[in-house]
């Protein structure tokens, strides 16, 4: 299984989806992200790793402008998706977030039915023409999230009644339902048990075919399992960025090496 | 560091057997036990006070819900009641209650004789058995039904306050000796009437539906206008305070930037909640009546004043329940591209709803029991006319309110009003109970346990 992924990784050679140039983030007086440059490829899983508080989640939340909701946060520099600056005045963050979906650390389904959880995004964006169309979107989203077979008989049951792993896959289905191009995942498995983690990881692997996935993770083994590219963050700086295989076998920076060999973090 | 070394003597509980508690543990347990006792005593004191309060109100007030009436056959003399002879209520209205009083008196004497009861009381003393209010009641009944003129009809009239009090244990033969309003002979006659089943005690609907009556007619005093006035005010408060309060809270909690101005507003809202209610009364008098020219004693003014008073309560409760909605729900909504407003109205507000409703109803309940500001805007007036329906401008008609009516009753000298005041308090408490039960019901109904 692992070998197969390695061979796939070798043939990866996709165009740039997200390009960050000189990104700085300030929380009030705190300089949280220092001058990050990174090109994130399309149809690739990119992992951000690093010790707690290194800024990897902060940077992730810049990509769909979720930092806008924090009044003291200030973002400088450029982030381009398909060549368009998402911090341009003309960009509506609400529209951006339909294009850049996000899955959070703790599964956070709405206290509504499974169906309504997935249908919410398509509804507010007016993606479905009629009920049958919406049903189709919900089914395909749940299928992509590998949840359809488990919930197809109880779509009206509350989403919060599912197990932790199912809830997280429901959140992924909800994010996928609005047909995003980029999927951001902020430690999506940290609240899950190993079996659920395995299911979500398999899912991430499949999602790569259609989306550019960026995943923040504490677990280096997870990064090595699911990602093709890895960026190592340290104290707000992006220290190293490259093919996952290279980062883990042959880190160029001493700080990266210390982290992945377990000396810090 | 030294604790770990073997040479240091070991202290504390590690020494003895686990079966016997050492000094320290015993002390700690005793302290805990004492604290529990204090708590229990406090709770019991509270319950005792509540029981005392309820007992005193119920014993004094429950009798207000029973009323003594006397059944009399009255001959409605056509010559006296309808001198024109045309049965036109407009012309018949010229006959005042003085025209009706002798008919009622003669009817009562006739009824007494008819039942074979002997009494040596004069006509005047016999007539004192029935309430002065009965004459007015008979007059309005005849004016409403002109056809009964000329017939002899049975009417159920109110017994006077003293006679009513006699059958409720408030008046006795001993007190009657000293009372110039009633004599033992009258009480004996009343007992005879009761034995003849002409005098009865039944449930007092009039207490709930009738308007207030003058100080000399406690038996006729009711809460109709006060209940209507209170309901109208609650309507105004609900229609104004709920939307304004919820809108203000949502804006402050979800949309407003965090800066000095919003901090200042926040502090002021908290302070407003602590402003004595009479201050709001003065405000209402100055602004709504003197400046805006709204009528005195009107439920609209009372409602506006109580709205001002209730707003801080609703805002504070709403903000607290908005705050308690986990931020992950907001993130989830924003993360799939919902706008701020969609995330609030689709997800946050429904989750905050039980808290908002509870806060609102508690605010309303507070407003329902509020007296002081209403005194200042003239709702303490003596009002006998029911206000019109709200859609017919009834909000601008004079009315009183339940707590003010309680205050009003207690101001009057006749001891029968003690019973009326306590009865009004029971009605007020029943309304509060209903509101609180509604709050609990709505909470249960809207609460999402998943």
UniProtKB/TrEMBL annotation, chain A:
Q: Name one Pfam family in it.
A: ABC_tran
Q: Does the keyword ATP-binding apply?
A: yes
GO MF, one example = ATP binding
Record key words, sorted: ATP-binding, Nucleotide-binding, Phosphate transport, Transport
Domain (ABC transporter) spans 18-260
- InterPro entries, per the entry: AAA+_ATPase, ABC_transporter-like_ATP-bd, ABC_transporter-like_CS, P-loop_NTPase, PstB-like
Which NCBIfam families does the protein's record reference? 3a0107s01c2
Name the UniProt record assigns to this protein: Phosphate import ATP-binding protein PstB
Give the gene that encodes this protein: pstB
TrEMBL record, chain B:
Question: Record's InterPro entries?
Answer: DUF3333 (IPR024573), MetI-like (IPR000515), MetI-like_sf (IPR035906), Phosphate_PstA (IPR005672)
Q: Where in the cell is it found?
A: Cell inner membrane; Cell membrane
**Keywords from the UniProt entry:** Cell membrane, Membrane, Transmembrane, Transmembrane helix, Transport
Q: Read off the Gene3D superfamilies from this record.
A: MetI-like
Q: Does the keyword Cell membrane apply?
A: yes
> What is the recorded membrane topology of this protein?
Multi-pass membrane protein
- Domain ABC transmembrane type-1 residues, every copy: 227-439
State the family named in the UniProt similarity comment for this chain. Belongs to the binding-protein-dependent transport system permease family. CysTW subfamily.
Protein name per the record: Phosphate transport system permease protein PstA
Source organism per entry reads Jannaschia pagri
